[in-house]
Amino acid sequence: MRVLVVDDERNIRTTLRMCLEGLGCEVREAATADAALAALAQSPADLAFVDLRLGTASGLDLLPRLLAESPTLDVVLITAYATFDTAVEAVKRGARDYLPKPFTPAQIRHFVEKTRAHQELSSQLGNLEGQLAQSVPEATLETASPAMHAALALVTRAAASDAAVLLRGESGTGKGVLARALHSLSARRRRPFVTVNCPALSEQLLSSELFGHVRGAFTGAVRDQPGRVEQAEGGTLFLDEVAEMSPALQAQLLRFLQEKQFERLGEGRTRRADVRVVAATNRDLEKDVATGHFREDLLYRLNVIEVKLPALRERTEDILPLARRFVAFFSRTAKRPLPELSPATEKMLLAYPWPGNVRELRNALERALIVWPAEVLEPQAFPDRIAAATGSVVALGGPHTLEEVEREHVLRVMANAPTLDEAAHILGIDASTLWRKRKKYEAAPGGTG
Questions:
Q1: pLDDT over 70 for what percent of the chain?
Q2: Among 31, 212, 321, 402, which residue's beta carbon has the most beta carbons within 10 A?
Q3: Which of these, 57, 58, 60, 72, lies nearest to 2 by C-alpha position?
Q4: Which Pfam families match (predicted)?
Q5: From the CB of residue 435, how many other CB atoms can be counted at a distance below 10 Å?
Q6: In 37-50, which positions are buried (b, 16+ CB within 10 angstroms) versus exposed (e)?
Q7: CA dist., res. 105 & res. 115, Å (int)
């Protein structure tokens, strides 16, 4: 383990070095804040012991600068002036813990072991995130779109604060993915990320879901139940489609945002929670305010930092890379050879307006991989609304050859029939004849679009 010791007293640095090296750590020393930052810039560290008073400088002020240089660094504040307020402020600024002077070798060992355990947990979480990327292909922040780059840059800056964030964008643009990314980039990343889907529940159930309830609060409440606010303690609460909240619940949420206080449903006791709120909406909240459907004061509280996600049709440079990512994912899931997108299909995907955005693109590619037998995905593999909207469907009576019309019809029947024999029966031909036609179509280059 690599450890940085930051203290202006030489004897403290020497004592810590001896103790840490005895535990198998690689140790570097710094007597000033600038020296500590320079040491960290030169080589990363896993753990840092930082003195509260560094001459005229403050270790508390140094904390966020160290974490900005190395976000995964575990920092322990060491001080001869330990108070509860100091400890709270140190944790607020990103310290993992604090250590009062004089300290013992056993205490140093404790922090080293805690950091090692945390590193193992981080490694496991990294593996889980990698598995998530494999199971949720749209959970990617790679983009060539300037508008999306701007949104990501704003999220990165917002992650450094605890301010409320409002994510705006059409349904399916990836607001949930961006909310999770914001949490992962923040100092709260080691605490829970909790999602509440506001439109999915009635007013009473949503109130209970958010703030919890006590036994007997309503029919079916057989025991005390904490809400999502309490479950998110220290972390991030994501309110998806927040505009769907009732006026009464909006008032409860406003109070929580202002005072960090709430009551469980059916309980008189006031509780507190340290939670960062991120909300998302696909509605025009200013219009909802004007019509009286949404509280103006709540909008101001939620909209401290506003991030607008562009629609997929506004980031066309991302459509084909996303499509290929989905094709690779679903072909791997189905254990079939990786299909190609025909030129006609690429043209179609770029021309379609995608009202359902990334979610609709994902669903369209998943369907295509299920129903299309050939190794080149043609426009006919996609729902009619997509192909028809871009002129990619061979229409009867249109300027198409008989061979093109036959190919279109045969492929569509095969896509909809449960078996090859059933498709042959519908077409009125032998299964062997249909098999030969299928092989011919699989081998044919390009599309008919």
A1: 88
A2: 212
A3: 72
A4: AAA_lid_14 (PF25601), HTH_8 (PF02954), Response_reg (PF00072), Sigma54_activat (PF00158)
A5: 12
A6: bebbeeeebbbbbb
A7: 16
Q: 74-79 and 305-308 as β-strands: parallel, antiparallel, unpaired?
A: unpaired
Specify the amino acid at residue 50.
V
Number of residues in the chain: 449
Q: pLDDT tens-digit profile of 58-98?
A: 888 888 888 888 877 888 988 877 666 777 777 777 788 88
Q: What is the pLDDT of residues 243-297, one digit of tens each?
A: 999 999 999 999 999 999 999 988 888 999 999 999 999 999 999 999 999 999 9
Q: Where are the beta strands (DSSP E) in 80-199?
A: 97-100, 165-168, 193-197
- Average pLDDT rounded to a whole number, residues 150-178: 90
Distance of CA 279 to the CA centre of its chain: 13
Question: Which residues make Cβ contacts (< 8 Å) with residue 398, sequence separation at least 6?
Answer: none
Closest-CA residue to 68 (of 166, 139, 161): 161
pTM of this prediction exceeds 0.90: no
Q: Which two tokens stand for residue 17?
A: 């070095």
- Strands 47-51, 57-58: pairing is unpaired
In angstroms, the Cα distances linking 20 to 2, 103, 213 are 10, 13, 48
Please give the Cα distance from 185 to 72 (Å, whole number).
10
